[in-house]
Amino acid sequence: MNFTTKIFAFLCVCSQLLFSQSKEIQFLTGKDVEQTKEWDFWINSGRKSGSWSKIQVPSHWEQQGFGSYNYGRDYVTYGRNFKFHDETGVYKHKFTIPHSWKRKTINIVFEGSMTDTEVKINGKLAGEIHQGAFYEFKYDISDKIQFGKENILEVKVSKMSADKSVNNAERLADYWILGGIFRPVYVEANPKEHIPWTAIDAKADGTFRSNIYVKGIHSANNIIVELFNAENILVAKSQLQIQKEDTVKQIQFSIKNPKLWTAETPNLYKAKFTLNKNKKTISQTEEKFGFRTIEVRKGDGIFINGSKVKMKGINRHVWWPETGRAITGNIDLMDVQLIKEMNMNAVRCSHYPPNTSFLKMCDSLGLYVLDELAGWQKKYSTEIGKKLVKEMVARDTNHPSIIFWSNGNEGGHNFDLDAEFAKYDLSNRSVIHAHHKPGNAFNGIDCNHYEDYYSTKKILEDENIYMPTEFLHAQDDGGGGTSLADYWELHWNSKKGAGGFLWAFVDEGLARTDFNNQIDVNAINAPDGILGPHREKEGSFYAIREIYSPVKIDLKTLPNNFNGTIPVENRYHFTNLKDCRFEWKLINFKTPFSSESGFDIVKTGKAESPDIQPTQKGKINLNIPANWKEHEGLLLTATDSSGKEIYTWAWKLKPNDEISKQFSKSLTKINPVSVVENDSLFILKSDEKEFAIGKIDGLLKSVIVDKRGKKMTFKNGPVFVNGKMELSSIKSFGEEQNQLIEAKYKNGNKIIWKLNSNGVLELNYEYSLSGDFQFSGVSFDYPENYVINAKWLGKGPYHVWKNRLHGQTYNVWQNLKNSTRTGQSPWMYPEFKGYFDDVSWLQLDTAEGKITVGTKQEKMFVRLFDFYGIYGAKGYPELPIGNISFLDAIPPLGTVLAFNINDKTESIGPESEPNHLNGTFKRTLYFYFGLPDLGDENKQFTMPKENILTD
C-alpha cells in the first residue's frame, strides 16, 4: 500500500469514526411533500375507505383522494348537531436498520401528524398516543428494532382527537381541517451517550450561555463548546466537566464585538457541542444562533439590542393549495422572500408552530417571529398543553428570529401554561396573549385584535405597549394595505406603538380532489390574504411595500422649483441610508397607438447615498442633468445593502394640460364640422363621424365612426354621479371652425360638447357639491363584453381605493380584460375592473374599435365596469351609475369587520372618511373614436413622437 493509499484509507476511517459519533438519520417518508415515499394505507370512512391501498407520505390524506373535507367552521354551516368526520387512517411501512446502529439510541421522529397518533414497531407500542397536530414528537425504539432485518412500522392517525381540549384548540377553527402524517418521519441514531438538545441564550454584549442536555452519561467527562462566525472561523472555545448521570449542564463565556442579529442584519453564528471522554469524541451536535438582546420596557416599547423596534408584520398560515399544510422548504423560502419584498420585518406563525425550515429562513434572511402555541379560540388542557409547550419550545428555542412566544389566540390561552415556556427557553423570551378583547394585556403588551383607528389612539394613551397581533382583516380586497398608512403613522409616531400584524398572508384556498382540483376558499371564510393561494399578488401587496418602505419618500408631485433634491426619512431601526443605493432614470412614455406599453429610458444616473441615521430625516440629491424637464418621467429606485430593491418611485414630469395640447397637434387632418337636428337630437358631424346628443338631457346617445355608418356603443353620458340631472336649457352654436352644444341643469351643473375640426370630441363639464360624498364626477355606458384590453398613462397597474392609493406608480400600463374578483378564482391579477388613479389618457381596445379618452386637468380617476371590494350579502361599496366613469373623487374601502360590525368605514382612519367636497369642479375630456386618419390609407399606421394624448 503506497503512501497516498494509506492516507486515503486513514481519512476514510477518520470520516467513518466522525460519522459514527454524530447523529445519523434515515428518512422513512420523503423529506417533504415533493419527495414523498409510498406507504400502505387504509382509512375507515370517506373516499376510498375500507380497503388497503397506497398513499404518498408526507401528505394530507384528503389531498391523496382519501376521506372527506372539513372546514373548521363547518359546525356553523351544518348546525348544532354537526360532527366532524372522525376519520382514522392506518399506515404501514417496512424499513431496515443497519447493524452499525446496534449499540446506539434509536428514536423515531414525527415532525407533524394530524392528530392523535399511535405508533407501533414490530407490533409493540412505541409509547403513549401523541395528541396535538403541529408538534414534533419522538419515541425511543431502541429495544423494539431488529437490526439488519425488516421492521414493520404501523401508525394509526385519528383526524379528530380523543381529547376534547385538543379538538377545541386545533380543530374548531377558522381554517381547513385536514388529516394525516403531513411532515416527515425519520429514525435517528445517536451514541448511547449524547446531547439530545441544547438551549442557547446569546446576548448583544457577547455573552453566550447554553443549557446542554445530555443523556446516558456514564463515561463521558467533558463537553467542549466552540463558536464559529459566518465564515466558519473559530471565535471562541470553552469547556466544562460532566459527571455520570448528569442530565443538563450550563456553560457561559463571552466573545468581543459580536456581529449582532436583527431583522436588518441577520448575522448568524454556529455553536458546536462536543461530548468527550478525555480527548476521545463521543458525540457532536451543532446549532446556529444569533447574538441579540430582546427587551420589553413597559410603557415604552420593544427593544432589540437597545434600539426600539416596531413590527411591520403579517399573519401566515403554513399553506399550499395542492398539498395543504404539507409543504416544502422552497415554499418557506418563497414566503419569507415575499414578506421581505413587502418591506415587512415580522411574521406571526398563526396559529401553530411552522416547519423548522421556515424558521431557518427567518433566521438567515431576517424576520422577527411570533411562534404560537395552537388554540384558535379555545385552549388546551393543562396536562396536554404542558407537553406541547415543551415540544414546541425545545424544538424552536435556538432560533434568533423568535422574539416572542404566543400562548394561543383569541381566548385560546391557558394561563397555567404561561410559566411553562421559560422552563425550556434559557433566554426567557416574553410570552404574549394574542387576544381579541380589550383588557387582556400580558407582560406589558396589549395585543388586542381589530381595533379601529380611533380606539387604537386611545389604547396608545394607556400604560401598555400596543402591538395588535391581528388588524386590518384582508378578506376580499378590504383591509391589508387599505388604510394601513394611517395605522402605520399612528404606531410610528406613538411612544408605545409597536406596530402590528396584518391578517393575513395568503388566501387559504384548497385544491379539492373531490371536485376535480377546483380551489375552494370556503365562501367568505378563507379569502383573507394579500396574496392568492399560489402567491398571486393583490393590490395591497404593493401598497404595503410602499407604506412600509424604510426609505420613506412622501413627495407626490415634483414642485415647480424642483432642483433634484428629495426629502427622505430613514425608517430603518439599525441601518444608515448611506448603506443603501439610489439610482434615477429619465424616461419617455410609450404612446397610446403604439403596440407597446411602458417607457423608454433616456438617461440614468446614481445619486449619492445620504448619511442619515435610523429614524432621522434628510435629503437625497439626485444630481440629475439640467435639461431634465425635456423628458416625460423620473424614476428613483432605492436598493438595500444586499442589492435588493426597496421601492421605485415615479413622477410624471409634464402636466396634462401640455399632454392635451400635444393631442391636438398630432391630428393634422382638418374636416369641416356641422350640426343637424331633429325632434330629439343634435347631431354633430365631421367627415365620417357623427355624434348624437339628446335634446332632453344633453347626453351622448350614439357614435358613428365611418361612412358605412358603423356604430360604437359608447353612450348615456356624461351622467353626474351625484344628484339629479334636470335640464333647464340646451342650445347649439358655432365657434370658429368648431361646433358646440351647451346643456345647463337646474342644479347649476353644465355640459358643453365641442366637436373640433380635427375629429376630437371635446367635453367640458362643471358641477358643484357641498357635503360628504363617496364619489364625484361623470359616467358613461359601454358594454363590458365588447372590451378586449385597456391601456393608460397613469398610476397602475392595480386598481385603487381612496384609502389605498399607495403602491401604484406612473407608467403606460396595459391590462387584458379579466373578471377577477379579488380573493376568488381565477386569481388573475391585476384586476381589470376598478378605480384607477391619476389617469392622463385611457385607451380601450374593443370589438368595435379603439376608444381613446384624455383629460386636460390633473388627478383624474377612471372607473372601469362593475366590481366590489368586499362581498357579503351584497357587494360593497356601492358603485356610481353607469359602468365607465371619469371621477374627481372615489370611495374608501373598509374591512369586512369594520363594515359588518361598525358599519362605518370612516372608523379605520382619516383616509377612510368619505370625500369632504365643497365647491365647483371642472374638467375637460377629449374623446377620439377609432384610429386617426393621417391621410395615407396605403401606409401602415405609425404615430410620431408627439402622439395622441401622450407627453
Automatic annotation (TrEMBL):
| Record domain Glycoside hydrolase family 2 catalytic: where | 295-515
Top-level division of the source organism's lineage: Bacteria
The record's InterPro entries line, in alphabetical order, gives: Bact_Beta-galactosidase, Beta-gal/glucu_dom_sf, Gal_mutarotase_sf_dom, Galactose-bd-like_sf, GH, GH-type_carb-bd, Glyco_hydro_2, Glyco_hydro_2_cat
Name this polypeptide is given: Beta-galactosidase
Its quaternary organisation is:
Monomer.
Q: In its keyword annotation, does this UniProt entry include Translocase? A: no
Q: Which UniProt keywords apply?
A: Calcium, Glycosidase, Hydrolase
Cofactor dependence is on: Ca(2+)
Alphabetical list of Gene3D superfamilies matching this protein: 2.70.98.10, Galactose-binding domain-like, Glycosidases, Immunoglobulins
